[in-house]
Every structure is written in structure tokens, then in C-alpha cells.
Amino acid sequence: MFPFPQQQQFCSSPTTGAYPPPMQQFSPFTFSQQQPPWVDEMFKRMDNFESKLDKLEQIDKKVTTINAKVLRLEQGTNSLDERLEHVEKCTQLISDDYDGQKVKFADMKTELTNISKAMKYSTFEVNKIDKKLTSSVSDLQNECGKLKESILDIQMKSTSNNLIFYNIPEAEIETEICSEVIQRFCADTMKIENPERIHVIDAHRLEKKV
Predict the structure, then answer these.
(1) Which strand (E) or helix (H) includes residue 77?
(2) Angle 9-10-16 (CA atoms, 0-180°, nearest 5)?
(3) Would you say 152 and 207 are in contact if contact means Cβ atoms under 8 Å apart?
(4) What is the pTM of this model?
(5) Among the listed residues 162, 168, 194, the one whose alpha carbon sits nearest the alpha carbon of residue 182
(6) Residue 117: in which H helix or E strand, if any?
(7) Among candidates 179, 151, 148, which has minimal Cα distance to 165?
(8) Residue 101's CB: how many other CB atoms inside 10 A?
(9) CA nearest 198: which of 173, 147, 163?
(10) Per-residue b or e along 21-42, where b marks 16 or more CB atoms closer than 10 Å to that residue's CB
């Protein structure tokens, strides 16, 4: 309810020749032009609410972005898990293969040790046989030299009636005629007259002594 304004009353003393002033007109109802304080407060709250809604939208966008990143991270994690599982399988295969190769290597090492021992024994036997062969060859060479001397001695004894000429140089050609060489030696070196009268039935060179 709005209060009614009271009418102002004017009193004047009776004055001769004076008239009372005219009465002012007032509206029976006067409304205030200002808004109530609670309306302004409501508008302020609405502005704050809109600001908070904007912030919530921004937060929602950020949450959506974070969810997308989390999804990509989960996919990457799953891929890494698969790769890790593959690496573990490969590592297990390598480990199994390493164990197998280790056993083979141990067997090869044992075999090489046996071969080395056999080679050492063979080397010892070869050296032993080589010494025997060297001794045998030396003995054979000595026997061969003795045989040559014996053969030469036998030849010389069997040809006791023959003549032996020394210090006659060998010819450069291999097909020399020894009888002609003897005749030239008798004529040129020994100065024998009429060397053509000497009849050489057979002539040959003796082997050199070793």
C-alpha cells in the first residue's frame, strides 16, 4: 500500500485588499522511479551465474581435451604393453637359444680339448718318428757312401790292367767320346809320339767320390 499524501492547508489572516495564493495541485498517488535493491542484487547474481557458466564451459572443454589425451595415452600404453610383451618373448627365445648354444659350446670345448691332447700326442709321436727317420736316412747315406766306395774299389781291382787318367776336365757337352779324349790327352799333355798307334778299346769316366 502506498500512503496518501496529506493535503496541505493554508491559513491566512484577513487582510484588506489581499487575496489568498492559489492552491498547488498534487497527484493523489506518487510512484517511486527507482528499482528496489533486491532487483539489482538479482541481476548481479544472474551475471555471476552466467560468468560461472562460461567458466564451466571452459572447464568442460579442458576436460574433453584431457579425456582425448588420456585416451591417446591409453592407446599408447596398450601399444607399449604389446611391444613389451613381444620384447619379453624375444628375450625368452634369445635366452633359450643362449642356453642351447652354451651347451654346444661346452661340448665343442671338450672336443677341442680332446683334439688338442691328441695333437700333442701325435706331435710327440711325429717327432719321435722324425728322429728315427733322420737317423735311418743318415745311416742309409753312410751305407750308400760305403757301397759306392766298395763298387769303385771292385771296379778298380777288376780293371787292374787298365790305365786311369786323372785331372782330365769334363767336356761341356754330355755326349763326349772318351776314347778320343784319351788320345788327345796322350798327344797334347803327355807328348806321346804317334798316339794313333794306341788302340783304346773302351774308355769311360769314373764316378766321383762323395
Answers:
(1) helix 37-158
(2) 150
(3) yes
(4) 0.29
(5) 168
(6) helix 37-158
(7) 179
(8) 11
(9) 163
(10) eeeeeeeeeeeeeeeeeeeeee
Pairwise CA distance, residues 74 & 71, whole Å: 5
Q: How many CB atoms lie within 10 A of CB 186?
A: 19
Contacts 24+ apart (CB under 8 A), 15-18: none
Closest by CA to 197, choosing from 183, 207, 177, 181, is 183
Per-residue pLDDT of the chain (210 residues; tens, 9 = 90+): 334 444 444 444 444 444 445 544 444 444 445 667 887 788 788 888 888 888 888 898 899 999 999 999 999 899 899 999 999 999 999 988 888 888 988 999 999 999 999 998 888 889 889 888 888 898 899 989 888 888 877 777 766 667 788 888 887 766 788 888 888 888 888 888 887 787 877 787 877 655
